[in-house]
Amino acid sequence: MANLTQVELQNLRHLIGAHETAYEKLNAYSTQTQDTQIQQMFTKAAQDALNTKQKLMNFLNY
User: The pTM is what?
Assistant: First the structure.
């Protein structure tokens, strides 16, 4: 891992948390809609948020 400042580390933690929150919300929205196109859109957006969170976590070697 690169040498990160405390501020950079806090920012990465914040981003990871934000992507987790986005994943949870988008996943919930996808289960609440009846429109299959909108459901697919929410599901894809949720998966994208989860993938980004995982990439950030891999960068930090969690």
Answer: 0.85
